[in-house]
Specification:
single chain; mainly beta; 3-stranded antiparallel β-sheet; about 30% strand
Protein backbone atom coordinates (compact mmCIF):
# COMPACT_ATOMS: atom_id res chain seq x y z
CA UNK A 1 0.00 0.00 0.00
CA UNK A 2 1.51 3.36 -0.98
CA UNK A 3 2.17 5.97 1.71
CA UNK A 4 1.34 9.59 0.84
CA UNK A 5 3.88 11.96 2.36
CA UNK A 6 3.55 15.69 2.91
CA UNK A 7 6.61 17.91 3.08
CA UNK A 8 8.70 16.96 6.11
CA UNK A 9 7.70 18.54 9.40
CA UNK A 10 11.17 20.00 9.94
CA UNK A 11 10.92 21.83 6.59
CA UNK A 12 7.58 23.35 7.61
CA UNK A 13 8.87 24.25 11.09
CA UNK A 14 11.90 25.97 9.53
CA UNK A 15 9.53 28.19 7.52
CA UNK A 16 7.13 28.82 10.44
CA UNK A 17 10.14 29.87 12.53
CA UNK A 18 11.20 32.54 10.04
CA UNK A 19 13.43 30.44 7.79
CA UNK A 20 13.97 31.03 4.10
CA UNK A 21 12.67 29.03 1.14
CA UNK A 22 14.68 27.02 -1.40
CA UNK A 23 15.82 30.22 -3.11
CA UNK A 24 16.94 31.83 0.14
CA UNK A 25 13.98 34.21 0.30
CA UNK A 26 11.43 34.78 3.02
CA UNK A 27 8.07 33.24 2.08
CA UNK A 28 5.47 35.70 0.84
CA UNK A 29 2.34 36.04 2.98
CA UNK A 30 -1.14 36.29 1.55
CA UNK A 31 -4.74 35.65 2.58
CA UNK A 32 -6.67 32.81 0.99
CA UNK A 33 -9.70 33.91 -1.01
CA UNK A 34 -11.07 30.38 -1.07
CA UNK A 35 -10.24 26.96 -2.54
CA UNK A 36 -7.14 26.57 -4.65
CA UNK A 37 -4.40 26.97 -2.05
CA UNK A 38 -3.38 23.42 -1.08
CA UNK A 39 -1.13 23.29 1.99
CA UNK A 40 1.72 20.86 1.36
CA UNK A 41 2.06 20.01 5.06
CA UNK A 42 -1.47 19.06 6.16
CA UNK A 43 -2.45 18.31 2.53
CA UNK A 44 -5.73 20.20 2.95
CA UNK A 45 -6.92 23.31 1.16
CA UNK A 46 -6.30 26.52 3.08
CA UNK A 47 -9.64 28.05 4.02
CA UNK A 48 -10.94 31.42 2.90
CA UNK A 49 -9.59 34.21 5.10
CA UNK A 50 -6.66 32.15 6.43
CA UNK A 51 -3.08 33.42 6.13
CA UNK A 52 -0.70 31.39 4.02
CA UNK A 53 2.84 31.34 2.77
CA UNK A 54 3.79 31.20 -0.91
CA UNK A 55 7.34 29.96 -1.33
CA UNK A 56 9.83 28.17 -3.54
CA UNK A 57 10.21 24.52 -2.58
CA UNK A 58 12.63 21.85 -3.80
CA UNK A 59 11.52 18.36 -2.69
CA UNK A 60 15.00 16.93 -3.21
CA UNK A 61 17.95 16.74 -0.80
CA UNK A 62 20.47 18.49 -3.08
CA UNK A 63 20.57 20.55 -6.23
CA UNK A 64 21.16 18.67 -9.46
CA UNK A 65 19.67 18.93 -12.97
CA UNK A 66 16.51 16.99 -12.05
CA UNK A 67 15.88 18.75 -8.73
CA UNK A 68 12.88 20.83 -9.73
CA UNK A 69 12.05 23.84 -7.59
CA UNK A 70 8.63 25.41 -7.75
CA UNK A 71 5.96 27.31 -5.88
CA UNK A 72 3.95 25.76 -3.07
CA UNK A 73 1.53 26.98 -0.41
CA UNK A 74 1.78 26.40 3.34
CA UNK A 75 -0.49 27.46 6.19
CA UNK A 76 1.19 30.45 7.86
CA UNK A 77 0.42 29.03 11.29
CA UNK A 78 1.48 25.49 12.18
CA UNK A 79 -0.81 22.68 11.08
CA UNK A 80 -0.58 18.93 11.67
CA UNK A 81 1.35 16.93 9.07
CA UNK A 82 -0.82 14.66 6.92
CA UNK A 83 -0.56 10.99 7.82
CA UNK A 84 -2.61 8.37 6.00
CA UNK A 85 -1.87 5.31 3.94
CA UNK A 86 -5.20 4.14 2.66
CA UNK A 87 -6.74 7.35 1.35
CA UNK A 88 -5.80 10.05 -1.11
CA UNK A 89 -4.84 13.36 0.50
CA UNK A 90 -7.72 15.88 0.59
CA UNK A 91 -5.83 18.32 -1.70
CA UNK A 92 -6.08 15.93 -4.64
CA UNK A 93 -9.33 17.32 -6.04
CA UNK A 94 -8.39 18.01 -9.67
CA UNK A 95 -9.50 15.51 -12.30
CA UNK A 96 -5.93 14.38 -12.96
CA UNK A 97 -2.30 14.78 -11.93
CA UNK A 98 1.16 13.93 -13.22
CA UNK A 99 2.42 10.81 -11.46
CA UNK A 100 6.15 10.25 -12.00
CA UNK A 101 8.79 7.88 -10.64
CA UNK A 102 12.22 8.85 -9.30
CA UNK A 103 15.31 6.69 -8.81
CA UNK A 104 17.37 6.33 -5.65
CA UNK A 105 19.63 9.13 -6.94
CA UNK A 106 16.61 11.50 -6.99
CA UNK A 107 16.48 11.68 -10.77
CA UNK A 108 13.43 11.18 -12.97
CA UNK A 109 13.06 7.66 -14.32
CA UNK A 110 12.28 8.38 -17.96
CA UNK A 111 9.04 6.99 -19.29
CA UNK A 112 7.32 6.91 -15.89
CA UNK A 113 5.60 10.28 -15.98
CA UNK A 114 1.94 10.20 -17.01
CA UNK A 115 -1.10 12.38 -16.59
CA UNK A 116 -3.22 10.11 -14.42
CA UNK A 117 -6.90 10.41 -13.46
CA UNK A 118 -7.14 11.10 -9.73
CA UNK A 119 -9.09 7.88 -9.19
CA UNK A 120 -6.14 5.93 -10.64
CA UNK A 121 -3.30 7.53 -8.63
CA UNK A 122 -3.17 4.76 -6.02
CA UNK A 123 -3.02 1.99 -8.65
CA UNK A 124 -0.44 3.86 -10.76
CA UNK A 125 1.77 4.48 -7.70
CA UNK A 126 1.57 0.82 -6.67
CA UNK A 127 2.62 -0.27 -10.18
CA UNK A 128 5.55 2.17 -10.26
CA UNK A 129 6.76 1.35 -6.74
CA UNK A 130 6.98 -2.36 -7.62
CA UNK A 131 9.74 -1.57 -10.08
CA UNK A 132 13.33 -2.02 -8.85
CA UNK A 133 14.47 1.21 -10.51
CA UNK A 134 11.93 3.44 -8.73
CA UNK A 135 12.55 4.63 -5.16
CA UNK A 136 9.55 6.98 -4.82
CA UNK A 137 6.86 8.79 -6.78
CA UNK A 138 5.78 12.42 -7.01
CA UNK A 139 2.25 13.63 -7.56
CA UNK A 140 2.38 16.93 -9.44
CA UNK A 141 -0.17 19.28 -10.91
CA UNK A 142 -1.11 18.23 -14.45
CA UNK A 143 -1.58 21.89 -15.39
CA UNK A 144 1.39 23.61 -13.71
CA UNK A 145 3.72 20.76 -12.65
CA UNK A 146 3.68 21.99 -9.01
CA UNK A 147 4.72 19.42 -6.41
CA UNK A 148 1.71 18.10 -4.47
CA UNK A 149 3.08 15.21 -2.39
CA UNK A 150 5.45 12.26 -2.44
CA UNK A 151 4.45 8.59 -2.43
CA UNK A 152 6.65 5.90 -0.93
CA UNK A 153 6.23 2.13 -0.64
CA UNK A 154 5.19 0.74 2.74
Amino acid sequence: MPIFNAIPGDHAEHLWNGGSDSYGHQPETMISDGPGYPCRHCLRNIGEGESLFVLAYRPFPTTQPYAETGPIFLHKTPCPRFIAEEVLPPILVSPDYIVRGYAEDNRIVYGTGAVTPTSEIMRRAEDLLQRADIAYVHVRSARNNCFQCRIDAT
